[in-house]
Amino acid sequence: MSKPLLLVVVIVLLRTVSTTAQEITQQLDSVSLTGTRIDLPFRKNSRTINIVTSDDIKKSAAVNLADLLQQVAGVDIRRRGTGGSQADLYIRGGGFDQTLLLIDGIKMDDAQTGHHTMNAALPIEIIERIEIIKGPAARVFGQNAFNGAINIVTKKNLKNSTSINVETGSFGQLNGNVTSGVDLENSSHIVHVGRVTSEGYRNNSDYDNANYYLKSTFNKNVQPIEMTATFLERKFGAENFYTTNPTFNEYEETQNSLIAFSTTFRKSDLKIQPRVYWRRNQDMFLLRRNDPDFFRNFHISDKIGAEANASYTSELGVTGFGVDLSKIYLRSNNLGNRNRFMSTIFLEHRFSLLDNKLDITPGVALTYFSDFKFHVFPGLDIGYDITNDFKVYGNIGYTYRIPTYTDLYYSDPVSNGNENLEPEEAFAQELGFKYMSTKLTASIAVFNRDADNLIDYVRTSVTEDIFTAQNVTEVNTKGLEFDVAYNFNLNKHKQTLAFGYSYLDDNISDQNEELSRYSLNTLKHQYITRLSTQLFKNVNQNIIYKYAERTTGQTYNVWDASIAIRFNQAEFTITASNIFDADYIESGFTPMPPSNVLFGLRYTFK
Asked: What domains, with CATH codes, occur in the chain?
């Protein structure tokens, strides 16, 4: 079947199914993306965007952000073990340095390495929704959004309530957290304290992770000022995370913290949102856990930033503009002492034509790096509303990533950085369709990315032990993504059936794939299905099926499930992961855990 005919068939099926579906309780068309200059409802955006709502989070059977994001087609989370101790984040292939993570619009990129991106992952108890922007987003967010961006939107207000959650289960897991909200006359506060621990499912795979979170809104009756503060600490055995040597017992400790202040000024048709923040990451790695002098890496990176995003509405449309300034400091026993100044100017304008059915948004971001000079990211988004529920859209744009300090300067017995690396560049194109009514949501998109100078670690021959960072000449990536969520009623209770599929094809020119460390691990086929049922008023069941096929030929099927039983203010949960005991690896040399179960009890005081 040809692609155009396939699209027509899909559209017809979606419209037919929607006539019998029940209304979705949470209206996604009222959601606007956080941290962007032009406020647009989800329905009106001319990009491929997934919204994971608070309702989706409850039905996910996930206990941390890494597990949750694995249920989104087109997102590849490669974990090394459990508990979210370490995981790498990918969107539409590429590398772990090419996806930007944000918290309430605050950029959490780390100049040392993208391995630390998920160090900033917040506990799911305080997440309101997750916004996943696929495709090049440098024009909107800056240089690290090479293949996409993920924005964690935290809860605004919990009124006056306190929730206590305790979990225990396989591998000696023992987790506990307290989340409390206080709503005062002129301020509101959310506090979260949590700790997750495990003895490990294999040798040297134990972990002890602590999470602290505070969000406060002051002066909320006049000019609200929002403060966010986080501190996340992880201590974990890292057996075979980076090597296969049986004499090594790797160990790692990371700390990630953030403090930020923001507010919003509104005057007539002008809106200005200033923000200041300080992000800090600390990483200590031991090649031998009980012998710190054998091999030890210690890195501390700081990013201090200030930004202001603004929009102005006129008869010609909406103009978005902004400036982002930041200074990065790195102190490392391996990478040396480094610093970098970055500044970015953003400008875009949204035209609405043909009775607001056609939208055209050209834009550009101009960035200056103190060590890589000036770079420009132009782009264009176009969308047309065929009906109120059905939209066709397309976008093109340039995207860019400068090398991390690990790419440039890292050295160990099997890896070498390269001070002469050039920045990565790509030109991407996308065509998509969205269907969204009060009864059904669905989307399908095809995309192409032509990249130059992608950074990979390559060895000169199969007998060579040392991998050196190099710019790969050309990489072409083609792909397709499809998502649909169908809601229906059974016994007067809402049920949800959702599924997603993604396909990626990488064509690497002028490279022997056997000599590359990272390029062969692309998630070529990915299929995800979630069935959330409520057969009784106080009982919810969730089943999640994940199929993956990587370019290496490795395939695996993983089933997860959960059940939640509510008794007034209490909730009892059972979460089962890898139910059928699949044997698989997501990253490196580390086998994922066998089947396991977690029992939880949550009580909410109001």
From this structure: 3-605 (2.40.170.20)
